[in-house]
Amino acid sequence: MSRDPLGPGDRAPDFTLPAADAESTVALAEHLRRGPVLLTLLRGLYCPFCRRHISQLRPTCEALRAAGIVLLGVVIASPERSRRYFKHFPPCFPIAAAPDRATHRAYGLPEVLRTPEVRQGTEREAVEVLRELGLQVPPGQAAAVFAAGIISKSDAFEMTPEDEAEGQRPVQAAGHFLIGRDGLVRWARVDIGIAPLPPVDELVSML
User: Fold this and answer.
1) Which of the chain's ends, N or C, has fewer CB atoms near its CB within 10 Å?
2) Residues 71, 84: Cα–Cα separation, whole Å
């Protein structure tokens, strides 16, 4: 049964999952004992926007760490698949591998069918990214070029049958949740796209 996405005042569901980049586990409760957590729930590794988002978080990692906030991530992938990828492109923050979408469902993140409208939104997002990179492509081809030509070559990504299967399912919404040490959500953002995070000082002010 679906539920609304969690928001401020809701208790964040705990989880313990295999680490996406090492032979270990990632537990939300363990990190909350050290301080507030900014949890980012992403789609599968097939998603080039998600992989780019992870790579662009490096400056934010340092700023959050200096502010006493732990950045924590979850990607929808088997531990074996994710570890093969992150071996070549290690993240700057702990990431868990969720073999299914159970954790995302626990936080109330919706799934959206891949309708023409959703594909158009993906195309617009890809156009913006390519524009930032100073690139132009023929109309209607930005998403394909972005996924196959730009990101895949730059982050050592190769599509596997697991990635292809996840990419054929309804689009999993992404979510960001700022969680206080008491386990309560202070701020949340849920979107089909991958939006930039608020400034760190703004996040700190919400705790």
Assistant:
1) N
2) 22
